[in-house]
Amino acid sequence: MTYIGNDIIDLNCPENRKSFHNSRYLNKFLTASEINYCKGKNYLYPYIFWTCKESCYKILLKKGLNKSFSPRKFQVNLLSFDQTITSIVKYENFSCAAYSTISNSHFIHTIATNNKSIKSLIQFSIFNINESPIDQIAEIINISPNFLTINKKNGIPILKYKNMLIPYDISISHDGDFYSFAVLKQE
């Protein structure tokens, strides 16, 4: 089965700035090779590594992983740097593709999937935390928001319409002033 995960980081959030510029904090979630990679480079790389790892972890939870998030166990390999930064994220014997974008130094958003051939089928939205996620999701999947609900099953978000499960994989994230989601219609 194909799954997706997504994560967003608000680059202007004071807590994030404090944490992501603290070497002790970075040593808790970056591998040695990731730390080496970041030396002398753009300050955004640790944020990118974090969102990739978090997005991949969300996929693993859907696949049945029953372990707490240990970011140092995830290895991110950055592959390309176009408008979207493409990475491969590895955890034990699992790997997924991750696609990160940076928006005007406001946020970094990453979508990951365990099936890179479906990248173009993933729909997503990023919006202000004060907006309704239900309205945004309903607009993307083209249904009325009146009976759409986001529920959780084993801590994983699912979509229901009129209390019936609808065939979409969904990933939701929020940080600071931003909310993001990604959806993929399951066949």
Describe this structure in words.
Strands 1-5-4-3-2 form a five-stranded antiparallel sheet, covered by helices on one side. The chain is 26% helix and 40% strand. By secondary structure, it is of the alpha+beta class. The chain has five helices and eleven strands, in the order βααααβββββαβββββ. It has one domain: Alpha-Beta Complex (Ribosomal Protein L22, Chain A). The protein has helices at 14-20, 23-29, 32-38, 45-62, 133-141; strands at residues 4-10, 74-81, 85-91, 94-103, 107-113, 123-128, 148-153, 156-161, 164-165, 168-175, 178-185. The chain is globular.
Properties at a glance:
three-stranded antiparallel β-sheet, five-stranded antiparallel β-sheet, 187 residues, alpha+beta, 40% strand, 5 helices, Ribosomal Protein L22, Chain A
Number of domains: 1
The CATH architecture is Alpha-Beta Complex
Q: What's the number of extended β-strand segments?
A: 11
Structural class: alpha+beta
Beta-strand content bin: 35-45%
Short description:
With 187 residues, this protein is an alpha+beta fold. The protein is 26% helix and 40% strand.
SSE layout and pairing:
Layout: E1 4-10, H1 14-20, H2 23-29, H3 32-38, H4 45-62, E2 74-81, E3 85-91, E4 94-103, E5 107-113, E6 123-128, H5 133-141, E7 148-153, E8 156-161, E9 164-165, E10 168-175, E11 178-185
Antiparallel strand pairs: 1-5, 2-3, 3-4, 4-5, 6-11, 7-8, 8-9, 10-11
